[in-house]
């Protein structure tokens, strides 16, 4: 498959069938033929991309020797070969490199030597401990994306890139760092090394995964590479860091191919930028240089005919032609991994589950509610993980308020410059280059008020959210049980209270529905005692029954 650099287009060219690994010399011959035909068609081939398979590495080394000379050093910092005197840079697929680091970290300890400082160590057990602490908190977790399929070595879907990327993330790195400050109930101080390693590889992956011209959400690395962007300076530091990393196996030091190939890929991207500038391009999107289009294309072939995960030779030929003519005229594959999530489908599936077996009258009947039904006793004291999660969620809700941008009184009522433990997660997740701060630091009174809202909604959502007028009942229950205390009265306070309650109720309902869906699909295997949530219990039983089949 070939792919455009300036414009996002892709074109499958050919396929071969083999009963085993293709011989290096045969694979090299195919590559040369394809490149020459593309050159004859007027295309300028700048780079090639592959995973770290033994065959792929062997053929690139063979092409380097045969086209550049027998004296070429295979372990050179940049891998390239020439066809018709045109230089072609080879890099490795960044998602595969990230998975390679994750797979090594599952089994071995990573050591990171830093000049004039104590070496840092990272190990997978720190991530598992952090997940255990987080999953015992409320449903508004600090690391909501992590599941057993991300952290349990026996359940990890190792081919899934998201399972690696969501662990090597800014959020997980921030939370791990905070958990080292809890004390005996948290992580050991050595876990700060794991936090820093996760943060480094998160930034590294972002720097080679940008597809927009300008940075979004103050993430200055996940965008196009230009002379003024921070990529080139970061890559220089990243290469030094990679050279100072190694894994320990049985007390012995070893450097896996993933670490070496990250450095080769960064060098290759810099060389590609130089070549592109010589052709008049002032920027490029690094996400262009990966295997996503090819992976998505194979995924589409497997989806033909409902679900054909292992097509025959004949089926593959037919599906290849079908896809070639039907949906490869667009830049975005219809069933690509990055397809926009449709929230309505999630809520619909939950509604279908909780209404199965109910008559039409049962589903639409009005609920008889009294003030006594909706009054909730105060909730238990929050743990540290619950507090920092609630502080972050409160900031997320307040950030959507427009009045806070124009009214000084509103801003004083809702936000503060004095930070405490409620704000620890917000501080940790704030990008250092964000001036002014882009995240919101809510007042303790507001966070405590929303915490009370959460306790009320946690009790009543399973009882009313799927009923007619359930949303209004939940909002009214919050108004009855929670009194927001603000220092200064403002003409906007009435509207702001209504907005906060409405938005927070929506968020909790959506989060609860998503949680039920995770239970139904087996993605949430936490052993939680939810005796007050009949739907959660039913969903758990439903999954266990189907799993046995």
Automatic annotation (TrEMBL):
**Name the UniProt record assigns to this protein:** Transposable element P transposase
> Which Pfam families does its entry note?
TNP-like_GBD, TNP-like_RNaseH_C, TNP-like_RNaseH_N
| Annotated transmembrane regions | none
| Residue ranges of every copy of the Transposable element P transposase-like RNase H domain listed in the record | 1-63
Superkingdom of source: Eukaryota
Q: Which organism is it from?
A: Zophobas morio
Residue span, Transposable element P transposase-like RNase H C-terminal domain: 289-321
> Where do the Transposable element P transposase-like GTP-binding insertion domain residues begin and end?
96-212
InterPro entries recorded for this chain?
TNP-like_GBD (IPR048366), TNP-like_RNaseH_C (IPR048367), TNP-like_RNaseH_N (IPR048365)
């Amino acid at each position: 498959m070939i792919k455009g650099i300036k414009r996002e287009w892709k074109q499958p060219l050919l396929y071969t069938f083999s009963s085993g690994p293709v011989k290096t010399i045969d694979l090299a011959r195919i590559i040369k033929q394809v490149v020459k035909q593309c050159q004859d068609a007027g295309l300028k081939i700048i780079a090639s991309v592959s995973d770290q398979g033994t065959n792929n590495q062997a053929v690139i080394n063979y092409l380097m020797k045969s086209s550049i000379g027998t004296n070429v050093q295979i372990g050179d910092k940049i891998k390239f070969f020439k066809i018709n005197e045109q230089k072609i840079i080879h890099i490795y697929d960044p998602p595969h490199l990230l998975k390679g680091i994750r797979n090594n970290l599952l089994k071995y300890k990573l050591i990171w030597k830093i000049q004039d400082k104590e070496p840092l160590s990272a190990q997978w057990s720190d991530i598992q401990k952090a997940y255990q602490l987080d999953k015992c908190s409320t449903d508004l977790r600090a690391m909501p994306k992590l599941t057993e399929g991300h952290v349990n070595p026996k359940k990890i879907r190792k081919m899934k890139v998201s399972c690696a990327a969501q662990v090597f993330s800014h959020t997980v790195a921030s939370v791990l760092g905070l958990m080292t400050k809890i004390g005996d109930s948290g992580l050991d101080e050595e876990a700060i090394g794991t936090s820093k390693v996760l943060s480094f590889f998160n930034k590294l992956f972002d720097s080679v995964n940008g597809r927009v011209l300008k940075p979004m959400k103050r993430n200055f690395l996940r965008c196009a590479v230009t002379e003024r962007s921070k990529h080139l300076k970061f890559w220089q530091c990243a290469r030094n860091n990679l050279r100072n990393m190694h894994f320990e196996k049985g007390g012995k030091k070893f450097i896996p191919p993933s670490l070496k190939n990250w450095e080769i890929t960064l060098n290759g991207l810099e060389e590609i930028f130089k070549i592109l500038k010589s052709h008049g391009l002032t920027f490029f999107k690094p996400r262009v240089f990966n295997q996503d289009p090819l992976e998505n294309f194979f995924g589409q072939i497997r989806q033909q005919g409902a679900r054909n995960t292992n097509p025959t030779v004949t089926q593959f030929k037919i599906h290849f032609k079908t896809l070639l003519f039907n949906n490869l005229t667009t830049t975005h594959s219809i069933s690509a991994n990055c397809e926009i999530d449709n929230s309505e489908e999630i809520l619909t599936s939950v509604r279908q589950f909780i209404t199965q077996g109910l008559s039409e009258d049962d589903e639409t009947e009005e609920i008889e509610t009294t003030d006594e039904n909706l009054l909730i006793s105060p909730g238990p004291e929050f743990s540290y993980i619950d507090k920092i999660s609630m502080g972050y969620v409160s900031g997320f809700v307040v950030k959507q308020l427009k009045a806070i941008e124009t009214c000084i009184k509103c801003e004083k009522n809702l936000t503060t410059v004095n930070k405490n433990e409620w704000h620890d997660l917000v501080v940790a997740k704030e990008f250092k280059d964000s001036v002014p701060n882009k995240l919101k630091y809510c007042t303790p009174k507001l966070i405590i008020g929303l915490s009370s809202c959460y306790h009320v909604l946690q009790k009543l959502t399973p009882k009313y959210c799927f009923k007619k007028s359930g949303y209004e009942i939940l909002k009214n229950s919050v108004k009855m049980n929670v009194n927001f205390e603000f220092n200064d009265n403002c003409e906007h306070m009435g509207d702001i209270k209504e907005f906060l309650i409405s938005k927070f109720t929506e968020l909790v309902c959506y989060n609860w529905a998503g949680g039920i869906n995770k239970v139904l699909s087996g993605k949430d295997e936490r052993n939680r005692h939810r005796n007050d949530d009949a739907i959660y219990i039913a969903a758990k039983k439903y999954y266990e029954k189907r799993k046995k089949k």
